[in-house]
Amino acid sequence: MKNKRIVVRAIVAVSVTLAGINCWAQSPKLKMTTDIPKSITAPDKVETSLGTLEYFDGVPRPKTVETVYDYLDRSRAVQVFLNSIPAMSVTTLREGQASVGADTCNKICIWDSLMDSESLLLTGNTSTMYAVGFLDLQKDGPSVIDLPPNMLGILDDMEFHYMTDLGVAGPDKGKGGKFLVLPPGYKGDVPDGYFVVPSKTSGVWVFMRGYLDKNQPLGKAIPAASANIRQNLKVYPFAKKSNPPAMEFINVSGRNMNTILPNDYSFFEKLHALIQTEPESYLGPEAKGMMAAIGIEKGKPFNPDARMKKILTDAAAIGNAGARAISYFPRDPGNLLYGKDSTWVMAYADKDTTFTRNGAYRLDPRVLFHFGYICVSPAMAVTVAGKGSDYGLNMLDSNKQVLDGSKTYKLHLPPNPPAKDFWAVTMYDTQTRSQLQTDQQFPTLGSQDKGIKKNADGSYDIYFAPKAPQGQEGNWLQTIPGKSWWIGLRMYGPLQPWINKTWRPGELELVK
Length: 512
Prior knowledge:
512 residues; VPA0735-like fold; Immunoglobulin-like; six-stranded mixed β-sheet; 10 helices
């Protein structure tokens, strides 16, 4: 009986307490009381995607405070991850190049025998000769790129922002010349006789392609392009112009080199390291604030506690999922090459290399590009009939299903593909966005391949399967059971039917 009275008293006490809370929440009518809109108050309990959030008269209870702070830290970290993909991509390019010895401005990676699938590099192609390097303006000061003729290239900064074109699309018009790249905030004298390029960051990626002479067989055109670069390209600090260091060219054809940005906690470690090498003006106040909120600041150590490290690990996983969803299932109409009924997409939404609309960043298109592609230049998005190159991308079959490496697919290219020079289809790995690694050294087929078979009407059928369909060995690219894949269709010297879309490739059809 005594225990029963204790329980009753406890129930009454709780009821009185709750009644007091409810009365307080309802606010009794007093002399100065006015009607308070519900829209500006917090109820005692509210159900959300984070669970039940609880308050005492608008003040979060301890468990709610913990839940909300975890969410804020996680959401800010996810946004930092997604917004920093451009910077991380160019950072890992620098790390990858340094890993094979290209760690100073006079050391250049060159694919002497073109790029095969050994190199992990975002959407590299097998048809042109790449040569890449980096400038360190913090260490070297103003730096010179003495460019040979017959080149095509770009300078991008450590935010992957466009700086200038080199070669045919640049101020030298393909004739070659000396470019002088100035460090952030440079106030010194600027000599005559240079194409002057100021930089906002200390690091600068130097991307170059050597032209392959279309009038020569590849066996002669490839070594000629390499010789032009090796014999004539010079990169050096301006301060050493009277006695520049000897050039070193590192042949990376057939060599393992990883330049792909990480998808895990190390992303944030690398971002912190990058911030330390760049000037205070490198980031705007909003980006700096978001990074500072998760412990990434210039001049301060990055040492998250166990709670924050767990949150950052989770945020990297969420950011990675977001980047892959955006990349393989884009929802911005500007990325859809032929509209929503087709699976063909393009890397630059609406062919805009600034990723802006009405002065605002287009966040998804920016993530899509920098997660899967490199090289930012307006020249890459301008399609001129008979010049340069243009391409379409495809990650899904005609039913918008993920491509399965254990199955057989067919791509039909209608008669007379509109390419003045040549066209090529290249396969990529969905994990690395680099060339798919199979038994085929170059996972590419195109009009330059001698064994490819043309249909009677001038069209082509390309097959993708673990084994070549009988009679289609020359029109076959190998896939891997248990893996997915995707393709890029490049038109070199695209003609008007490609540009105005009166000619368009078929969808990827599952062959049953």
